[in-house]
Specification:
This protein is of the alpha+beta class. It has 3 domains: 8-82, Winged helix-like DNA-binding domain superfamily/Winged helix DNA-binding domain (Arc Repressor Mutant, subunit A), CATH 1.10.10.10; 90-132 and 229-341, Beta-Lactamase; 138-226, Enolase-like, domain 1 (2-Layer Sandwich), CATH 3.30.390. The chain has 13 helices and 10 strands. A 5-stranded antiparallel sheet has the order 7-3-10-9-8, sandwiched between helices. It has a 3-stranded antiparallel sheet with strand order 4-5-6, covered by helices on one side. It has a two-stranded antiparallel ribbon with strand order 1-2. Belongs to the HrcA family.
Length: 345
């Protein structure tokens, strides 16, 4: 759609129609444009412009109205050629950053907060996937004697997650020996991933080796758990929009939230890109997404950890603000992930 040539005035008329329709959800006519905007031409000329934009496939009109509304092609042209890339106001950015810094230093908390923030900032529904290809790392461990033959393993992961496990021994071990084993393991395996650990554990024997194996199993389990989660927020406010008043349309947007196969395909599509992607009506690739738009971004640390973050809503979406919100939250998550996992390889 970017190759379509429009005059400056027709670009302005298209921008006005989309702006008005996004705000009011009502078809936009030539008379209302002429009254509200000083384009220096008559309503009749604007009417001709609307007809030309409709002929170009950028606008259409409901049977019951003389006004026009954007088509999916019109929205695509707008996003590619006319949209102002709007940053969130500084006070909103400051407030959002403060909320992230107040949250617990855990991926789960950050992603819950991300979806809540995006749903509020965009008036859409937000989703985020837990990071994939994640190499969780050991931060610190402690061995604490509970009873003569019962030891508590306390393991802190780089994500901030705390794992605890009881170890039953055949013979008692004094706390001094437990502390010595803890120190030895911390020196050798702090910062290690599940991939690194088997080699690092080769030099250990006995109880210390047993603890190391438990740490490895914990890392593997934490990676399995973290790859499968989708965080969601704000679906109810999207379903209140006039576009979603009938069953099929409701079903389509719920599918985006609930159908893991579709999310997998979208994830694979977006992971190839480095910036925010706007996907309107499925872009011809996802047939179940008629009348739906997604504004999506990847987040994470290249070559270490990456996830998907974005907003789902009707095509009648404030794209400039939504893109700005998604980009800002993704940038914050990138910063936080770098703190946990370090720079990319």
């Amino acid at each position: 759609m970017t190759e379509l040539q429009l005059s400056q005035r027709r670009k302005q008329v298209l921008r006005i129609v989309i702006q008005e329709y996004v705000e009011n959800a009502q078809p936009v006519g030539s008379q209302s444009i002429a009254k509200k905007y000083d384009l220096g031409v008559s309503a009749a000329t604007i009417r001709n412009d609307l007809a030309a934009l409709e002929k170009a496939g950028l606008l259409t009109h409901p049977h019951t109205s003389a006004g026009r509304i954007p088509t999916d092609g019109g929205y695509r042209y707008f996003v590619a050629n006319l949209m102002a890339h709007t940053d969130l106001p500084s006070h909103e950015r400051h407030m959002i950053r403060h909320q992230f810094h107040q949250a617990r230093r855990e991926i789960d908390q950050w992603l819950r907060l991300s979806t809540a923030v995006l749903a509020k900032a965009s008036t859409g529904a937000a989703l985020a996937t837990s990071p994939r290809s994640i190499s969780n790392r050991v931060k610190h461990l402690e061995l604490i004697g509970i009873q003569d033959t019962v030891v508590l393993l306390v393991l802190v992961l780089a994500t901030g997650t705390l794992k605890q496990q009881l170890i039953t021994l055949e013979q008692p071990i004094f706390q001094e020996e437990l502390s010595r084993a803890s120190n030895q393991l911390n020196v050798e395996i702090a910062g290690a991933t599940a991939v690194d650990l088997p080699e690092k554990l080769e030099g250990f024997t006995g109880f210390t080796r047993e603890v190391g194996e438990l740490v490895l199993n914990t890392l593997l389990q934490s990676e399995e758990q973290i790859t499968d989660r989708v965080y969601r927020h704000g679906l109810a406010q999207v379903l209140a929009e006039p576009e979603f008043t009938d069953g099929p349309q409701v079903s389509r947007i719920v599918q985006v939230f609930e159908q893991r196969t579709l999310l997998q395909e979208i994830y694979d599509d977006v992971m190839e890109l480095s910036d925010v992607q706007v996907m309107i009506a499925g872009e011809g690739r996802f047939g179940d997404m008629q009348d739906i738009s997604l504004v999506l971004s990847r987040y994470g640390v290249p070559d270490r950890v990456s996830g998907l973050l974005g907003v789902v809503g009707p095509m009648r979406m404030p794209y400039g603000r939504t893109v700005g919100a998604v980009r800002y939250v993704a940038t914050l998550l990138n910063e936080l992930m770098h703190q946990l996992y370090g720079p990319s390889r």
